Prior knowledge:
single chain
Amino acid sequence: MRLDIVIPAHNEEHRIGRTLQAYRRVLADEEVRFLVALDSCTDATAAIVREHARRDDRVRMYAYPKLGKGGVIIETFGCADAELVGFVDADGSTPPRELLRLAHVARRIGGAIASRRHPASLVPVRRPLGRRVASAGFAGSVRALTRLPYRDTQCGAKVLRREVVRAALPRLTEDGLLFDVDLLLTARDLGCEIAEVPTVWVDRDGSRVNALADSRRMGGALLGLWLRRLRRGPLPAAKALAAAAAIVEPAREAIHATG
């Protein structure tokens, strides 16, 4: 099946070239495309991506004003037309073969997310203590407030079937740090099964994460997202059933066709 991989990037001149080189080399199939979503880049990121696009027509570049990670993913999702649509962080922490494993799972059920906190995951370099504590606290808050079952909503590698993406897009409201949570909540509303898959994840230099400041911002954003969804109410039953049917039937047909 065809796979479109969205790569959000904000001033990633020191890492985007390495990431694209690795993904282009390992995922060499012509049915895989790389949609790089530039979020108001002011460095050489665009020039580096253009050079990769010149060498490999599977690389596409989309430049946006400052929209945030979630904002540029949402916009670029609208440009994707492959059967499977995923996104991965520009830092290369998720190896290409791990994203391909997600695609194989998503093809059969609807969606798959990588999890660094899964017992079977391999994280060769331990993250700093402050980031581990903040991550664990946030993950617990997400489960408590939203009842999502996932250990790690924030790992930057996810793949969904196109039908799930198209059904979810009109209902997504979070374009910032909580985009992943909003996406998973919306998929649940639509009756889509999303698997949490153990992954290999390599912490990369150059992270812009500030454990204390970002945990406070994400806590506030999580509460805001919960309140917005509470005011909006659940998806009407008829629409939910129709959306679920639109997701499930194409998946069944694809599985039947490919064995």
